């Protein structure tokens, strides 16, 4: 998974093989088996391209890490104590990254700006009233509320605004 996440694009078994062979000797069939296992388990999706498949990650590394943390936290008997212990293990850099993340998810939603109403009897007053009614109708329809307990960051684009080392962009590293 590290290679698939690192490149952040669909990859072939051959590409993964060539990258891995820079570190150690490995057989094509081994990489193909691992990629197929990842597909069978739902970690990657694949599309046929000629005689080969291109594999792409189903979720980002940051979303996966967030889901793992959420799962561990949910299993705790004392969630507050678990958080205190977790934060206590953080390095100063990790605490800074946490502060950055908290600022990202607490950004206020941008409110639509209202234009001042023209004075009574002024030209365009009728048009303004129609625009207000249309805006109110749009507010009544509204947009559906986002799911709150998805295991992924709750703020849209939150991971994109984080530093690259904290899961904001394609990230290299160990792990599957």
UniProtKB/TrEMBL annotation:
Native organism: Streptomyces albidoflavus
Tagged with keyword DNA damage: no
Region Disordered, residue ranges: 109-176
Gene Ontology molecular function, alphabetical: DNA binding
Domain of life per record: Bacteria
Name under which the protein is recorded: BlaI/MecI/CopY family transcriptional regulator
Family indicated by similarity: Belongs to the BlaI transcriptional regulatory family.
Keyword Metal-binding tagged: no
One Pfam entry name: Penicillinase_R
Bias-annotated ranges (Low complexity): 140-169
Swiss-Prot/TrEMBL keywords: DNA-binding, Transcription, Transcription regulation
Ranges of Acidic residues composition bias in the record: 123-139
GO biological process terms on file: negative regulation of DNA-templated transcription
